[in-house]
Amino acid sequence: MVQLSRRSFFNHAAGLSMSLLMLGGCAHRLSAGRVPRVGYLTGNAFPTLVAAFREELRSLGYVEGVDLILEMRQDRPNSRDGEVHAAELAAMNLDVIVAAALPYALELQRLKSHTPTVLATGPGLVSNGLAQSMERPGGNVTGMDELPPGLTGTRLRLLKEAAPQLSRVALLSTTPGRGGHQVQLADAEATAPNLGLSVRPYRATNLAELQDALARLVADRMEGFVSFQGGLALVNRAMIVDFARQHRLPAIYQSRLFVEAGGLMSYAPDQEEQFRTAARYVDRILKGARPGDLPIQHPARYFLTVNRSAAALIGLTLPPRILDQADQVIGRP
Q1: Cα–Cα distance, 182 to 187 (Å, whole number)
Q2: Does residue 138 contact residue 292 with C-beta atoms inside 8 Å?
Q3: CB within 8 A of 233, min separation 6: which ones?
Q4: Does residue 17 lie within any of the structural domains?
């Protein structure tokens, strides 16, 4: 029998422990012949975002059905399908789950899912308790946070510049959870007095509440509105844009998709790039990285898109200053 000195014994034990930790962190890479399985939770109204995610996976060398199995789950608009789909994926022993929006990540959190999760876009990962910090999330969730400091104040300023006559602005919030809503509300309330504006929040968590919020803001004689981050508003963007046009309300939105649907203006990131980034997070996790060690990112840049046709339909003449700032101007005056 080989006798080990006390020092040699502890050195050997430490080395063995480190080896086991490394094996645990690289489990995906060490399962020879095993095809990783990735869950994907999204609504069915965003095909371009799904396409961007899949294209980036292909560029990273993955072939669906060969190098990776994608378990896709898509919600019907204004349904509670997400709860069912989240529970299903959480029970499937997947390698990664991609949550296309914050409600899915919050539902997985409620289910106490331990599956590594990438949030493709959502407001307030830290403020909603999904991560300990941007730099070191610390848990099983990482991804893109679409709510950098000061964003809502910037949107409010841009709306005031586009429609200088505004004095009463509604804050239409469909933001899930608590953290992201509170951050946006505080930002708007801090910015409004410097712009000569009074603001009032109108919050909704489902379609009926959203319709009621829109009716109330008109009854309260609000003169325009800022749309906070939130998938509920995005899914119902056609209804919201039509409502704003009908009541001649200038509004600024959180996604360019609203402007493409006929909305006045948006100040938003490149959302397709966010979903490409989500694919890169998935790649790193499948290669052994822990989500808690992967820093959460804000979008690198926000783009101002303005719709001159929408402005004309509500009787608004856009000032040259706002047109000069715009990254893209669509429509005809």
Answers
A1: 8
A2: yes
A3: 172, 174, 210, 227, 240, 253, 254
A4: no
Q: Which segments of 146-230 does DSSP mark as H helices, in order?
A: 151-162, 179-191, 207-219
pLDDT band at 43 (very low <50, low <70, confident <90, very high): confident
CA angle 295, 115, 144 (to 5 degrees): 30
- Strands (DSSP E) contained in 65-129 are 69-75, 96-99, 117-122
Same domain, 317 and 172: yes
CATH number at residue 116: 3.40.50.2300
Sign of the alpha-carbon dihedral angle for 312, 313, 316, 319: negative
Question: Do residues 202 and 170 touch, judged by C-beta distance below 8 A?
Answer: yes
Helices marked H in 2-150: 6-25, 27-30, 47-59, 81-90, 102-110
Position 134 in a domain: yes
- Tens digit of each residue's pLDDT (9 = 90 or more) over 243-295: 999 999 999 999 999 999 999 999 999 999 999 999 999 999 999 999 999 99
Same domain for 213 and 200: yes
Q: How many domains, in total, are found in the chain? A: 2
Q: Enumerate residues 6+ apart whose C-beta is below 8 A from 198.
A: 167, 168, 169, 192
**Whether residue 279 sits in one domain with residue 314:** no
**Both tokens assigned to 231:** 């998938």
- Helices and strands (H and E) in the chain: how many: 14, 12
